[in-house]
Amino acid sequence: MATQKMLTFVSTPREMPEKRAAAERSEDFHEIYREFAAAKAAEQSGRCSQCGVPYCQSHCPLHNNIPDWLRLTAEGRLQEAYQVSQATNTFPEICGRICPQDRLCEGNCVIEQSGHGTVTIGAVEKYITDTAWDNGWVQPFAPAQERAESVGIIGAGPGGLAAADMLRKQGFQVTVYDRYDRAGGLMTYGIPGFKLEKDIVLRRNKWLADSGVEFVLNCNVGEDISFDAIRGKHDAVLIATGVYKTRDLDLDNADHGGIVRAIDYLTASNKVDFGDEVPDYEDGELNAKGKRVIVIGGGDTAMDCVRTAIRQGAQSVKCLYRRDRANMPGSQREVQNAEEEGVEFVWLSGPGSFVGHVTGDFAAAQEADVDGPVRTVRQIASVSIQKMRLGQPDVTGRQSPELIEGADYDEPADLVIKALGFEPEDLPKLWGVDGLEVTRWGTIKASFQTHMTSIPGVYAVGDIVRGASLVVWAIRDGREAADSIATFLTGDARIAAE
Asked: FAD/NAD(P)-binding domain: which residues (predicted)?
């Protein structure tokens, strides 16, 4: 009689892969979770209830066939499980590591709602794909037929790379342009290694290159090459730049030394992890070692900053957030990990102003000229913190923070990191493009069905359309846009546009 492999959630409790002790993991940038063993991955996959209407799948932006690859994993059919997993996702090993499963698939798991604890979907997804790489099941591909049409993709982040994968499989010639020296976008330079080790991203980049995708790196559109030149070289163009402009604070003394942007801080840390020389890290500007660090913000970027500062050897790390824990936009799993590692969260608090002091050595280095006076440069000394309370809900239903008068206090700080979210750059102005329409938020206007912009043959996906969002949404957008571009280049749509 065959043994029932599935629906074991009643007798088998939920287990995550072993998490390294906080004291150990705080000393390095390696991933904090260990790998599932084969038996444990099969056991946890068998907890799936194989729902007739799988809410995990419907709440995944990619609509991954999660119940199917869980069943195949429980049955030990791992190569088939990988094939099902990668059929809908260009980067399953990356999503398994960095997706906020607690807000998406796992948070909507039926057995989670019934009180049995969700299936560990993300950990199994990571295990399946890592096993596929280890066993050589992931190989460069060659399209069944090469096509003459070419597509230029601006931005080597998840949206751009997902589109490159799908277009190349259909035989199109694909060139990806990116401002950085390595492809991957924020997966490479924004997300720290303790969440996503960089060899995971680099091997995918190599896989795409070996499959015929051309990369043009260290290429800043608008400076090294014009947008019009890219349009002239390709039959279609996809804009997938992401959003890199940091939201700022309109506060007194916000230009003091020691107040830095999260993107600069995280990029420097990741470059150092690659072994690159980073002068701003070496001179201490983007290095938290020995400093009292305050991070302002409550999203996933803020969590990346506080946990990076801990690993760099900060004296103390505090995170200011103007709402309470329940209203934190970042992953609760990440908040818990940060607390375990020694981060202090200061809820219902925000910065009122920055207080600085003159540092003699720093000022002396800023001489205006040989005979002129020395310009005094102020360095951050403390943050004036304003206490908040939650007031009436706004139009979105979230309670708005209200200032508590007379409850301010000063918190000493040597490094302040602004993790307030990202906004789009003014691409039409930067690139000198006429006719590229944007929304009132500065994001590019694109069709939700086809992802085409106001310029025929030019498409846009990911954060530059949505605003700052998740990697998994960018992957979905990129794959959808690839289908639209293929239709445009091969069907009646192109003839109509011409």
From this structure: 151-478
Q: 33, 96 in Cβ contact below 8 A?
A: no
Mean pLDDT for the chain overall: 92
- Supply the pLDDT for residue 114: 87
- Complete domains list, the chain, with CATH: 22-135 (1.10.1060.10), 150-244+422-490 (3.50.50.60), 249-359+374-418 (3.50.50.60)
CA angle (71 as vertex; 70, 77 as ends), nearest 5: 95
Residue 152 has pLDDT above 80, yes or no: yes
What was the pLDDT predicted at 252? Answer: 72
